[in-house]
Amino acid sequence: MQCELLGVADAQHVQVLTDLLTGLSSHPGSQIHQQELTIKSQASPFTELKLLQQIPEGKAAGPSRWEICHDGIPVKGKGYAELPAVVRTRTKASLHGNHSLSFWIHLGFSVIYELQRKGFSYSVYHDGFELQVLLCSTGPASSSLQHCEAQIQDVCKAYWLVKITAAVPEAQAVQAAHAIGSFSKFLEPMVTLRKE
Q1: Parallel/antiparallel/unpaired status of strands 159-167 and 191-194
Q2: Residues 6+ apart with CB under 8 A from 14
Q3: Which residues neighbour 30 within 8 Å (Cβ) at sequence distance 6 or greater?
Q4: 10 near 158, Cβ under 8 Å?
């Protein structure tokens, strides 16, 4: 199961958050530069997948490696609405090769949107759980930047995404969601967090 809490931080707080997360983390944050595609099946419009690829910095591009993610709907039921984080199933796979995107298009998928993330990823142990914290700027992929309205680009520069996740067995999902909720107190008031 995946427990998740999303938020935004004003760009002026990024350095303070970076220092805080580095202090709380079990190791220095890893730099990330990701491309994310969201694709949808034309045959089954409810099937939506996310394709994630790490963009190499200053290296010759080799065969592409994509992580494929399918997120289930948030778990509903007694007690889940009161949890501080969303709980859902997440299925992951990976695909290697230079024609990975063509593979999905031939299966009847089409690209809905494309974006890039650049920032840092931290691994933090809190209340017995390993939490992954993502702190990054997010915006349209560079290939589509010139088509974006100026207001969208300004928003992308002014605010950073904060994402706290924990991957746990189903039996520990409720406790992990509470751990995310208590950890999020460290980030307030610099980060506005909410369940999505």
Answers
A1: unpaired
A2: 135, 160
A3: 120, 121, 122
A4: yes
Q: How far apart are CA 111 and CA 39, in angstroms?
A: 4
Per-residue b or e along 126-142, where b marks 16 or more CB atoms closer than 10 Å to that residue's CB: beebebebbbbbbbbee
Residue pair 24/37 in contact (Cβ under 8 Å)? The answer is: no
- Summarize pLDDT for 130-174 with one digit per residue, the tens: 999 999 998 877 554 444 545 445 557 789 999 999 999 999 999
**CB of 69 within 8 A of CB of 50?**
yes
Place of tokens 């995404």: 161
Query: What is the SS3 assignment for 32?
Result: strand
| Rounded distance between C-alpha atoms, residue 31 and residue 57, angstroms | 10
Q: How far apart are CA 33 and CA 120, in angstroms?
A: 9
